[in-house]
Amino acid sequence: MSNDKKPDFSNVQSGANTRSAGGGSGTLAGARPDFSNVVSGADTVPGTPAGSARSYTIEEGDTLSAIAQRVYGKAKYWRQIHEANRAGIENPDRIYPGQVITLPAIDTDGDGTPDDPAAA
């Protein structure tokens, strides 16, 4: 037996009021969000000293070791990339095109100071 009756959504109304239920000072629908802290075209990662890290968008065919090879000159730095992105990359073998990761500053020349990934 199949039920061919479709749900009736004729009484559904659009619109939202995001004011908190407790009557607090929430935002009303239609209010303009504040994007004053957004920087267009930024290649550095917010919250890090200038030049100490940058963002990278995963492309088709990328692996963490290939990215490490291209950016730092050695594939072995994939672990540092994974560690810097632990919150977004649970399994280092499973990264996806479009995923944005942080390329951390890594001491690649052994002088004791992290090197800027943008300089590579």
TrEMBL record:
Gene3D superfamilies: LysM domain (3.10.350.10)
Source species: Luteimonas rhizosphaericola
Listed SMART domains: LysM (SM00257)
Protein name, entry field: LysM peptidoglycan-binding domain-containing protein
InterPro entries: Bact_Kbp, LysM, LysM_dom_sf
High-level lineage: Bacteria, Pseudomonadati, Pseudomonadota, Gammaproteobacteria, Lysobacterales
Ranges for region Disordered: 1-55
Domain LysM: 54-103
